[in-house]
Amino acid sequence: MKLSIVFATFKSEAILDKSLRAYCNIITSYQWELIIVDNACRVETRQIIEKYKDKLPIVFLEQPQPGKNNALNKALPSIQGELVMFTDNDIIPASDIIDVYVKTAKKNMNIDVFGGKILPNIKLPKWIDTSVFGIKTAFGILDGGNEDKEIPLGDIWGGNMLVRQCVFKEGVTFNTSIGPNGKSYIMGSETEFLGRLSQLGYSGLYVSKAIVLHQIRDEQLSINWLAHRAFRAGKGAFFNNHENAKKLFGFHRYLLRKSIIDFIKSLVAILSLNKSKINIAIMQLCNTLGKLSQSRNNC
């Protein structure tokens, strides 16, 4: 059984280089390939790829059309594996990731979608409270425990997601109207994708020993970065699960009310001088503002 690993990359060559060094440590007797789609079409990215072509089973593609999901769709016709692991260019896989996924997939032929742990590659500052769901999602942190179990597809995250190729042979692709694309994009690409698979009747399994690390960069350890992330997450949450409601000037009225309430809570948090509380309150406000913004776009 062959496994294909697929991810898109956009600039960030230093991050890509570190990830590819980790892929060189993979130990497996199974056939595999690493499909990398450059969504920036940069000479610098090609140079990094060339550096590893003799060390890794790389299939390198370029997709000039902007958008991560355009890049992933570009990869679909090139996939040779019966199993397809989707991840990101800033993910460091465990050396046994292929063996763990292939063996689990063989044992669970009735399951078509799998997901594993995503842990940070550094110790986060104390003011970043990872017990808060919004902060977990901002950093892509997922730890479902140490036992394999069937889970809703919505509990699988895109940094560590395995899908049988037969799903794509049914015509499923990635939605290009959502996902990373420039600075003001709608988050929730994998949520939307997995939501469609759930509606089609596919089931999911959490694989506790399928572990990857997410590279956390210095610039991400700021309230400003987390606030922008929360705003995009809000846009994605509304895009994937919006409801009909009364509107005022094109905006959902309940979101206008919630924005005011969250703004007041942010002021109170700022007065507390507690960085953790300030971060949580501002992220909540920005998440609501993201939903508010998308509520008008969805009109």
From TrEMBL:
Pfam families: Glycos_transf_2. Residues 4-170 form the Glycosyltransferase 2-like domain. The keyword Zinc does not apply. The keyword Glycosyltransferase applies. Gene3D superfamilies: Spore Coat Polysaccharide Biosynthesis Protein SpsA, Chain A. It comes from the Bacteria. One of its GO terms (molecular function) is glycosyltransferase activity. CDD domains: Glyco_tranf_GTA_type (cd00761). Keywords: Glycosyltransferase, Transferase. Belongs to the glycosyltransferase 2 family. This is Glycosyltransferase family 2 protein. It comes from Cognaticolwellia beringensis. The lineage of its organism: Bacteria, Pseudomonadati, Pseudomonadota, Gammaproteobacteria, Alteromonadales.
